[in-house]
From TrEMBL:
InterPro entries: PsdUridine_synth_cat_dom_sf, PsdUridine_synth_RsuA/RluA, RluA_PseudoU_synthase. It comes from Lentisphaera profundi. It comes from the Bacteria. Belongs to the pseudouridine synthase RluA family. Residues 16-159 form the Pseudouridine synthase RsuA/RluA-like domain. PANTHER family: MITOCHONDRIAL RNA PSEUDOURIDINE SYNTHASE, RNA PSEUDOURIDYLATE SYNTHASE DOMAIN-CONTAINING PROTEIN 1. This is RNA pseudouridine synthase. Pfam families: PseudoU_synth_2 (PF00849). CDD domains: PseudoU_synth_RluA_like.
Length: 224
């Protein structure tokens, strides 16, 4: 059970349900009765079916959009897929990039039977990165994505040689400096409706920015 679920509700109106998703919990599970996911607990609260409009990895925190009417799934998915939709994340990565801003278009697909990565025959993917500040061999990066491929941000950052702190899959060796990948969905703005939803940086990531000398950059640049 999510003890602070009510406090995590960002917006709830007309079938739209926006949550500040905690880490260590995927958006959806393997089945509707799988209680190891956010969808299950929202269904218990709602007393009926709830659908996820988009997915966040289990260890990614932040803005997660759900709907309580099936007809709204396609409606909001289309909005999110619009290139004008503003989907912002904060990432804490290894190293100090030589660039201040960077765009990555590496296609994402299966590189073997079990793993995803950059593949010439993969699906198109587009991410934009901006360095907000750097500490001791780490950096705080604002990410904007224009497609929603599985593990897109994680794969693109690893491809750029700046994997997330806490990254287990797309870094060799796996990073054990933090208990989860340092990635947070900060904001989603839907220009079609004018709605903008934000989620404050999760406490464990805020503490990470402090320990890595990055908190000043976060506070100075978080004008969302």
């Amino acid at each position: 059970m999510i003890k602070d679920l009510e406090q995590r509700i960002i917006y709830e109106k007309d079938g739209l349900l926006v949550i500040n998703k905690p880490y260590d919990l995927p958006s959806t599970g393997r089945a509707l009765d799988d209680d190891d996911c956010l969808q299950y607990w929202l269904m218990q609260r709602h007393g009926g079916m709830v659908w996820a409009v988009h997915q966040l990895d289990a260890d990614t925190s932040g803005v997660n959009i759900f709907v309580t009417e099936k007809k709204l799934v396609k409606h909001y998915k289309k909005m999110l897929e619009n290139t004008q939709a503003d989907k912002q994340y904060l990432a804490i990565v290894h190293g100090i990039p030589k660039w201040n801003k960077c765009e990555e278009h590496g296609r994402i697909g299966k590189i073997d039977s079990r793993s995803l990565g950059i593949h010439p025959e993969g699906k198109t993917a587009h991410s934009k990165f901006e360095v907000l500040g750097s500490g001791i061999d780490c950096s705080l990066i604002r990410v904007r994505i224009f497609t929603g491929r599985t593990h897109q941000i994680r794969i693109h950052l690893s491809h750029l040689s700046h994997p997330l702190i806490g990254e287990e899959w797309y870094r060799e060796p796996a990073c054990t400096l933090h208990k989860r990948q340092a990635l947070h969905c900060l904001k989603i703005h839907l220009p079609q409706t004018g709605d903008a939803f934000t989620a404050p940086l999760a406490e464990d990531l805020y503490q990470l920015t402090q320990s890595q000398g990055l908190s000043q950059y976060m506070e100075a640049n978080l004008n969302v």
